[in-house]
C-alpha cells in the first residue's frame, strides 16, 4: 500500500510541479506585484489598493470591459447556436456527413492572427468591392466604425469556433439512444418536439461544456482583436486583453496592468463558475 502511494505521487509530481511553475507561482507573484509600484525590473514600495482604485476610475479600461462583455454575450449565443445546428446537420442521415464535419472544423485549425488578417481582407477588400460595384453602402468601409468592427469580430469568432463546439455536441448527440427517438416518432412526436423534449435534455451536459469554453475564449480574445481591428477606430473595439497588454508594454505601467489582470481574472472566474453551477443544477433537474 505504501509503495502504491509513493508511486502514485511520483507519477503525479511532474504534473504538479509544472502546474505550480506555470500557473500557481505566476498567479501569486502577479497578485503581489499588483499591490506595489513594480516597473518590471525591481519591486518598489508597497502601494496597497491604489492600483485597484485607479482601475475603476480608468475610463479606457471600463470601456474595453463593457465592449468585451457585449462581444462575449453575442458570440456565446451565436457560436452555440451554429455549433448545435451544424452538429444536428452532420448527425442526420446524409451521405456527406464525414466530409462536412471536416469542412466545418477546419476554421478552428487556423491561427488567430492569420484568421484576423484573412477576415480583414474579406471585410475591407471583398466587401468594399461588392459594395462599390452594386452600390451597397452598408458593405463599404467595414471595420471603420465601432459597430461594423464589433460585428466583424463576432463573425470571425463564430466562424472559427462553431466547428469546434460542433464536435462537442456531436459526441453527446450520438450517445442519445435511438430507441427513444424511434418510440417518440411512433407516438407521433414531431421533429421539433423530439428535439425539445428528448434530445435537448439528454445533451444538457454538452451545453455546460460548450458554454464554459465559449465564455472563456471570448473573454480572453486577443490575437483576432489585434489583427482584425487593432482596437480601432480610436480604441472603440479594444478588448480587455489588448488594453491590459498596452498598459503593460506600451505605457510601461506593469504593476497597474497587473492589477487590471487580477480584476479581469476574478470577473471571468466568477462568471465561469456561476455559469457551470447553474447549468449543472439544470442538468440534475432535467
Topology summary:
Layout: H1 2-33, H2 50-55, H3 59-90, H4 97-105, H5 112-134, H6 146-173, H7 178-186, H8 191-202, H9 204-219, H10 223-228, H11 240-249, H12 254-285
Kindly describe this structure:
With 286 residues, the chain is mainly alpha-helical. It has a single domain (57-285), classed as Orthogonal Bundle (MetI-like fold). Helix content is 75%, strand content 0%. It has helices at 2-33, 50-55, 59-90, 97-105, 112-134, 146-173, 178-186, 191-202, 204-219, 223-228, 240-249, 254-285. The radius of gyration is 23 Å and the shape is globular. The mean pLDDT is 88. One of its GO terms (biological process) is transmembrane transport. The chain crosses the membrane at residues 7-35, 64-90, 102-122, 150-173, 194-215, 261-278. Residues 65-275 form the ABC transmembrane type-1 domain. One of its GO terms (cellular component) is plasma membrane. This is Sugar ABC transporter permease.
Output the CATH homologous superfamily.
MetI-like
Q: What profile does the largest beta sheet have?
A: none
Catalogue the unreliable spans.
none
What is the H/E string?
HHHHHHHHHHHH
| End-to-end separation | 41 Å
The total strand number stands at: 0
- Tell me, what's the shape? globular
Q: Indicate the CATH topology.
A: MetI-like fold
Quaternary form: single chain
How does CATH name the architecture?
Orthogonal Bundle
Number of domains: 1
CATH class group: Mainly Alpha
Q: What proportion of the residues is helical, as a percent range?
A: over 70%
What's the gyration radius in Å?
Answer: 23 Å
How many helices? 12
- % residues in beta strands: under 5%
Structural class: mainly alpha
Q: Give the overall average pLDDT.
A: 88
Amino acid at each position: 500500500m505504501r509503495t502504491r502511494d509513493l508511486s502514485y505521487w511520483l507519477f503525479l509530481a511532474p504534473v504538479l510541479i509544472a502546474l505550480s511553475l506555470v500557473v500557481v507561482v505566476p498567479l501569486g507573484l502577479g497578485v503581489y506585484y499588483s499591490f506595489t509600484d513594480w516597473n518590471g525590473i525591481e519591486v518598489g514600495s508597497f502601494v496597497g489598493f491604489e492600483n485597484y482604485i485607479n482601475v475603476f476610475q480608468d475610463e479606457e479600461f471600463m470601456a474595453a470591459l463593457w465592449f468585451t462583455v457585449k462581444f462575449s454575450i453575442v458570440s456565446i449565443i451565436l457560436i452555440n447556436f451554429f455549433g448545435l445546428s451544424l452538429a444536428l446537420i452532420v448527425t442526420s442521415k446524409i451521405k456527406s456527413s464525414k466530409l462536412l464535419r471536416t469542412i466545418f472544423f477546419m476554421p478552428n485549425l487556423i491561427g488567430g492572427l492569420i484568421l484576423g488578417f484573412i477576415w480583414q481582407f474579406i471585410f475591407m477588400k471583398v466587401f468594399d468591392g461588392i459594395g462599390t460595384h452594386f452600390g451597397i453602402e452598408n458593405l463599404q468601409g467595414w471595420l471603420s466604425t465601432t459597430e461594423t468592427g464589433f460585428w466583424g469580430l463576432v463573425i470571425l469568432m463564430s466562424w472559427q469556433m462553431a466547428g469546434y463546439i460542433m464536435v462537442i455536441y456531436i459526441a453527446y448527440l450520438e450517445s442519445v439512444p435511438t430507441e427513444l427517438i424511434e418510440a417518440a416518432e411512433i407516438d407521433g412526436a414531431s421533429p421539433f418536439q423530439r428535439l425539445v423534449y428528448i434530445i435537448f435534455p439528454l445533451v444538457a451536459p454538452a451545453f455546460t461544456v460548450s458554454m464554459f469554453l465559449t465564455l472563456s475564449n471570448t473573454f480572453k480574445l486577443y490575437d483576432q482583436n489585434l489583427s482584425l481591428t487593432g482596437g480601432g477606430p480610436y480604441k472603440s473595439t479594444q478588448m480587455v486583453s489588448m488594453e491590459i497588454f498596452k498598459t503593460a508594454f506600451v505605457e510601461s505601467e506593469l504593476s497597474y496592468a497587473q492589477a487590471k489582470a487580477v480584476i479581469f481574472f476574478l470577473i471571468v472566474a466568477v462568471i465561469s463558475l456561476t455559469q457551470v453551477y447553474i447549468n449543472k443544477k439544470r442538468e440534475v433537474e432535467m
